[in-house]
Amino acid sequence: MHKKMIATLALFSLFSTSASAAALRVAADPVPHSEILNHIKATDKKLDLEVIELNGNLNANELLARGDVDANYFQHVPYLRDQEKALGEKFAVVATVHIEPLGIYSHKVKTLKDLPEGAQVAVPNNVTNLSRALYLLQASGLITLKNSSATTLATSADIVDNPHRLKIIEVEAPQLPRALDDAQLAIINGNYALQAGLVPSRDALALEQAKDNPYANVLVTTPKLAKDPRILQLASDLESKQTAEFIRQQYKGSVIPVNP
Q1: Residue span of the signal peptide, if any (predicted)?
Q2: Taking every pair of C-alpha atoms in the chain, what is the biggest distance, in angstroms?
Q3: What does the DSSP 8-state code read for residue 123?
Q4: What is the mean pLDDT of residues 222-248?
Q5: Is 1 helix (H, G, I), strand (E, B) or coil?
Q6: Sign of torsion, CA 53 57 59 65?
C-alpha cells in the first residue's frame, strides 16, 4: 500500500477514535435534570459526560440544532414538537425518563376553597404548559373547558365556565415562582418549583396526576446522533432501575420516574 495512503488512513483512524471518545455534551435544566445527569456521571465511569446547565437565555434546542451540544434533557414531547415547528428542525427522542407534575401554589391562600372571587392565577405562557395549567384548574374544579381530554391543547379562550371569575395571567415559566408574591395562585412547572425551594409533594395545593400523563421529560438528540454509542449508553442509564430509584429517593414524589 502506498505510504501516503497509509498515513491518510492512520490519520482518519486517529480522528475517528478521538471523535468517538469525546465527551458527550448534554444541555439540561439545573433541577432535576442536571442533578440526575450528574448522578449518572458519578456512577457510570465509562461514560464521559459533560453536563451544561441552562439559564433563561439559552434555548437548548437551538444549541442542539447548531451542534453546540450533542443532546439535551429538559423538555417533554409536546413542547419539543412545537419547537421543531418553530425552528424548522427535526429531533430524535431517545429516552423517556420522568414526570415533573405541574402544581398549583399560593402564598395567599391555604386551600383552593379559600380562593376569593376574581383571583389572579399566573400560568405558563408557552402553548403546551398553558394547556396543562388550564386542565389542572379544570381537574381541581375551578373552571370548565370545552374539552375534557388533556391531549387537546387548550387556551384561555376554551374556558366555558369560570364560576370564580378567575383572571388568567400568562407569565414566562421561569418567573412563575416570583408571581406568588402578587397573584393568589401560580401554576408552576416542577423544575422551577424545585429551583425556588418549593417541594411539590408538600407545598402544592394540587398536582397533576402521573397516570396517563403525556408530559414525561425526554432525552433529545439529532437524528444523526441517535445511534451514537455514547447517546445509547446515556439513554440506557436514564431509563435504568438505578436511576428510577435515585429519582424516587432524591425527590420523594416531586419528580416521578416513568420507568419502574
Answers
A1: 1-21
A2: 85
A3: E
A4: 98
A5: coil
A6: negative
Tell whether the model's pLDDT for residue 4 goes beyond 60.
Answer: no
The answer, as to whether pTM is greater than 0.85, is no
Are 3-100+215-257 and 103-207 equal in CATH topology?
Answer: yes
Give percent of the chain with pLDDT exceeding 70.
92
Per DSSP bridges, beta strands 206-207 and 71-76 are unpaired
Q: Characterize the bridge pairing of strands 71-76 and 24-28.
A: parallel
Q: Which CATH superfamily is domain 3-100+215-257 in?
A: Periplasmic binding protein-like II (3.40.190.10)
Quick one: cell of 209?
A: 396526576
For residues 95 and 238, what is the distance between their CA atoms, to the nearest angstrom? 7
CATH superfamily of 103-207: Periplasmic binding protein-like II (3.40.190.10)
Which pairs count as long-range contacts for 113-118, CB under 8 Å and 24+ apart, including other chains? 115/142, 115/164, 115/166, 115/184, 115/185, 116/164, 116/184, 117/164, 117/165, 118/164, 118/165, 118/166, 118/167
